[in-house]
Amino acid sequence: MHPKLSIYFDGLCPLCSREISHYRKQQGSDQIRFVDITSTEFNPVEEGIDPVKVHKVLHVRTAAGELKTGVDSFIAIWEHLPSYHWLARLARTAPVKLLLTLGYQGFVVLRPLLPRRSRAQCESSPFCEMRSKP
To answer: Where are the domains of the chain?
Structure first.
């Protein structure tokens, strides 16, 4: 099976992980490849993804190979999950997309300050440079 969508997410971010856990329970998630970018098995070069940018904003790759980032990633996810089609349509409208983009940009600034899931997990991952200082 070839996934229709690949989501690249930060498995050490509690908020990010909760959201991904929610998406995994949705109808249509069986066609999604969930890739934890903090796993030692993740290779951004093999995935054709900027190794720095992927740790700053959410990335999604469509079945056609198109890479989407930020709010466009969320819209791609919502388009794929039947129960979120309405949200994808709404999010594509200019005023809503602008608000979502501004909100997401704020989250991107604050995310490195959020606590990580586990110090041990973070120390075993080569991708913890965004961890806030203790």
So the answer is: 5-124
